[in-house]
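User: I want to check something. If I give you two sequences, will you return the structure for each one separately, not as a complex?

Assistant: Yes, each is folded on its own. Here is the first sequence with its structure:
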Amino acid sequence: MCRRDGVPVVALADDLSGAAEVAALLRLPARLVLNPADLGVSGTGGEAVVVDLDSRYLDGAAAADAVRAVLGAAREPWPAAGAGTETDPTSARAFRAVKFPEAYGSPLWFKKCDSLLRGPVGAEAAAFAEGAGVLVIATALPAARRVVRGGVVLADGVPLHASPAWRAEERAAPRSVAEAMAPLPATDVPLETVRRGPIALAGRFREVAAHGRHPVCDAETDTDLTVIATAAALLGPGTRLLGSGGLAAALGRLLAARRADGAAARAPAPAAGRPMTANPFATEAAAPASPGPPWAPSAAGTASVTPPGTAGPTTVEAAPAPAAGTGAVSPVVTVAAGAAVPVQGGTWSGGFVEGAAAVRDTPPLLVVAGSAEPGVVEQVGRLVAAGARHVALTPRQLAGDEDVVLPRLAAGTVTVLSVDGSGGVRPGAARAIVAGLARTVSALPGRPDLVLTGGETARRVLDSLGVTTLRPVGEIHHGAVHSKTTDGRSVVTRPGSFGGPDSFVRIAAALRPSQQGVTQ
């Protein structure tokens, strides 16, 4: 039987970069599947299964059907041996736990939505709420300066409907989270209610659910999101969660604390006269009136936690390297190749040189910058300044009928492939451009490691390469998740709007640490 601290987790996301982000933030060994039909294949006990629905650009009905397909897959009978599914009893334990909760523990269901409310979020939320006792919604992402106040998303302090965040969308931004969640019946839960604490907030959730509605929570900080996740955990196994990566991170903290408590409970008793070390992540509080689900905190008063030594992906930081110079590097690509570029923890001299002894046997690295976000231009510039080669294709080239064929990339080199946005962003043209990028990458000779920005770009490229499963192995910086394909290729996915000016440099430094200090 699955232990209470080994609860199975199933998460859904509407694009690939969001799915990878959730897989990293849950702090569990994870399997990221690109096809819901693969949901039950090769699972292992205690892992999270994260499904990319690839629904960001679907219409509402199709997106809702994609959600229902995953929920339905978990209710189908276990496939017979020989049906093409992994039959090893250990490797399939996590998925059996989803199908047979009475024996393996109730699964935790989480639905990732875009923090800027892009895509068919309402149709997906309504489908995801089907069969749930209550769906708790919190879309704030404080790490990206996106908060929810008075039921309204504020991006850098500006209401979403008045911000430029939707400039590439074909429809107007919603004026509130509740409006975006339609047709799901929703009730706003103000910040002052959230900050009364988990027990009072859980009571408010019950009141909202008793009226057939679902709570939409204000939140401005990660602590607010931890309180929301803790309150939801007190409601019982019929509760589901929907929110941004911020809520996924809060859930990951609770799961980690629960595992720490379970490990402490199973530890041998201390020797006589030797004091027991207190759990530093829990506070004294009365137990909830009704038993919570397996992922509930040990004490109702548990606050924000960040326990060390947790399982799952780890954060990778770029290590310092000998610098050819110091100071800020201009984003303009005319900066001399090989210049030292500031990264967190020091500077990095990429020195991507064909044939250098340190990199001769290293696969090439291809960065595909498919996002229309303005910050990506500076990120590309800094990577080029560090020595990467730059190929910029126009939207006309990418959306045209003729494929763009690039030459084979030399071992150890780093190339960045981007879209020339000098002509401005054309709403409605993004999908054709991304499809062109995917065709270009799939036609490239060899097997370079990949850095893919933007969920749509990442998904189309991996589809074109026939990749259906990823195993996250690390998070280079917030949202930049390093995964491995089944045949060992490295793939980093990252939302287009994430990362500072040195994002690509940090990613390249993490993937190619042996090239630090190589010079021309």
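And separately, the second sequence with its own structure:
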Amino acid sequence: MNKQSFIKGTMILLTAGIINRLLGFIPRIALPRIIGPEGVGIYQLGYPFFIVLVTIITGGVPLAIAKMVAEAEGAGKSDYSKHILRTSLALTVIVGTLFMFISLLLAPWVTSVILPDERVYQTFVSMTPMMIIVAVSAVYRGYFQGKQNMIPSAASSIIETIARIVCMLWFAYILMPKGLAYGAAGAMLGTAVGELLGMFVLLWQYARDERRRPNAVQNSNTDEQHHLHTPPQNRNILKRMLGIAIPVTGGKMVGSISYLMESIITARSLALAGIATSVATAQYGALQGMVIPLLLLPGAITMSLAVALVPSLSEAAARKDRATIHKRMNQALRLALVTGAPFAVIMYILAEPLCLLLYDNAEISIMLKIMAPFALFLYVQAPLQAALQALDRPGRALMNTLIGALIKLGLILYLSSNPEFGIKGAVIAIIVNSIAVTVLHGYSVSRLIGFRFKLLDIIKTAIVMLIMGAGILFGYRHLPFTGLPWLQFFSAAAAGVILYLIVVFMMKLVTFRDLVRIPVIGKWFNR
């Protein structure tokens, strides 16, 4: 099994994440054309419940596995890593099975009483098989990430995305004649098939790695048999795992429950504003199913950084190497800003043509335009939260997330129920939440390790964004493609990106030394 450096591991996950995000826009574009914004709204109303249940089942377990395996590998205890894997698998499969049956039993009550639209029932039932699948996948991903081998996670996520796209659209198309509720349920069934194939890729990768090391496997199995007959060893692993996982799960639960409550409160608040249920469902579907996924496209970067950052910081913290911790934090935050900034500029300047091109809907562009300037707060939030978790401060991350969630839900209830704001109230609340949580995370990291992000990098990034924005606006207005809207958009965006890259290198926000570390293409720059 190949161990990668922090930068290389991040780049592997980043590449897979970008591919997944780009592929993920295929159903984002095609699904509304099959089941409409209202059907997307039904799908989105069921999805937050799935996120809550998966968070309960897996929560912080993958992160705990990654952290414990990284520590074990750092101490040269590979056999102990495999024992961690088996213990965590047993835990998550048992809990996943339990919640799957509970969900099936309570589905009629949840969809008729808690959720604001009874048509979510079919979607809710369709998602229940995924609980066990996601639980198993999460454990193996944590194991491979703890070994600092990001290739299995990247490969499985790409396979899962491709399968999900095909099956989601196919099943939605087949079931749509039965009604919107069944069309949305078909999309959820397609998601389940994708998750299943992604899990198979991880299992295959693990089996292949085991076959490559027959001697190591034999010795490891002998050691594991000894451990398995030692109950205190099992209890120690479980105790340590839960000690890490429970606070992290609490933090994720705040976000998941906030997401669920957001869907319920938004729909109820829009109803209080005098908006019909079908219209409110369509507006919420547009926000959560179209605008926010577009805004979170660079989230592939931040998630890659966060995943790679945990084992790297854990190892450095175990060695009490503060210099490496500061170096990794600066790398992660700088990369998040530099790679996220051009997306934010394009989504702000070209919001209307972008929404027309993707969704054939210019009305939703106002939401994207309002949110785009504040997207950078979202992009740096994940690395900061990962740092708190890797440095054994998940409780602080939990509190910050809770504060942000309470602010967001309160603002949604107050603003969205006002006819003057409507769905824009939810947009404003999400923006305030992203700013509040990011600032609190940054303050917590700063106090914990004495970290100071380089102010000059922030100033340089802002200057580059302004230059890029001016270039895009000029290109969109003056390039000779006004008769072809899609070509006008892409030519202006491409010109802006080229200008952005030139200025980024001129200001040394990115150097050729950074490019050398990128997998595959790095060797070209090295020459």
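Because they were folded independently, the notes below concern the second chain alone. The two ends are 27 Å apart (CA to CA). Residues 29 and 358 are 6 Å apart (CA to CA).
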